[in-house]
Specification:
Layout lengths: L1 H43 L3 H21 L11 H5 L6 E11 L2 H14 L3 E9 L5 E10 L3 H9 L4 E11 L1 H27 L3 H33 E10 L12 H55 L1
Helix pairs in contact: 6-7
Length: 313
Amino acid sequence: MKKQTLWTIGGGVLLLILASTTISLLLSQSSSTKNSIATTSFQTRIPIGEMMASDTDIAPEESLQKSIMPILPPEPSITAGETAAEVDQRIIKNGYLTLVVKDVPYAVSQITDLADMDHGFVQNSSISENKDGTHKGKISIRIPVKEFDRTMDTITSYALAVSNQSSTGQDVTEQFTDLQAQLHNAEAQEQVYLEILKKAETIQDVLMVQQQLGSIRGTIESLQGRIKYLENVTAYSTISVSLSEEASVQLPTKGFRPLSIFKEAIQTLIALFQSAAAGTIWLLVIGGGILLPLGLMVWALVRLARGRTAHKK
C-alpha cells in the first residue's frame, strides 16, 4: 500500500511539471505573436506622406542625373535607303580629256570662256613651251552637273584629235541622306539638352549639361561640313583637259643659238674636270687613310718574319 501511494504521488508531481511547462510555452508564443502584430501595426501606421517625402528627397537628383546622361538618338521612322529613293540623286561626275589642238593658248582661252558661259569657273590652268617651240597645257574647270555632257562635247570640238576621253560617276545619294538624318537627330538632341540646361540648379549640373552640349555642337558642325562638301562636289562637275600641239618641223628650230650651245658645252666640260679632280682627291685621302696603316702592318709582319728566320740561322 505504501509503495502504491508513493507511485501515485510521484506521477501527480510529474503531471504538474508537464502541465506548467506546456502553459509557459503557450504564454511565450502568445506574447511573441502579440509583439509581432504590434510591430506590424506600428509599421503600417507610418504616414504615407513621410514615405513620399523620403522618396522625393532622392528622386530629383536621380532624375537630373538621368536626364544629363547622353541621350540616344531616336530611331528614324524610315531607313536611309527608302529616303534616298524619294530625293534627288547626288552623283559626283568627273571628266578627263587629252586633246591635240592647233594652238594651246587659244584652246585654253576657249575653254575658259566656255566655263564662264556655263556659270562655272576655272579651277587651275597652266601652259608651257617645248624645246621645238610647240606648247602644252592643262586646264581644269568646274561646271554645273547638268551642263556636263554638253560641255564635254563642246571641248572635244576644239580639238584636231582626241587622244583620250573618259568620265566617272559616283552615286553618294545614300551617304548624303544618311548624313542629313544624323544631323536632324543631333539637332534634336541639342534642343533637349538646352531644355535640361534651363532646369539645372547647381553649378555641377550646369557644367555637365554644357559639356554634353559642346560635344553635340561639334558633331553638328562636322556633319554640316560633310553635307556642304557633298553638296558642292555633286552640284558641280570637274573636267580636266590635257592639251598639246602637233609637232612641227622648222629650219632652223626655235631657240637654236650656236654660241649659247658652245658655252653650255664648255661649262659641262669644266664640270667634268671638276668632278674628276674631286674624285681623285677623295681617292687619295680615303685610299691613303686605308692603305697606309695596312702597308705598315704588312711591313712590320715582314720584318718580324725575317728577324725570326735570321735568329734560327
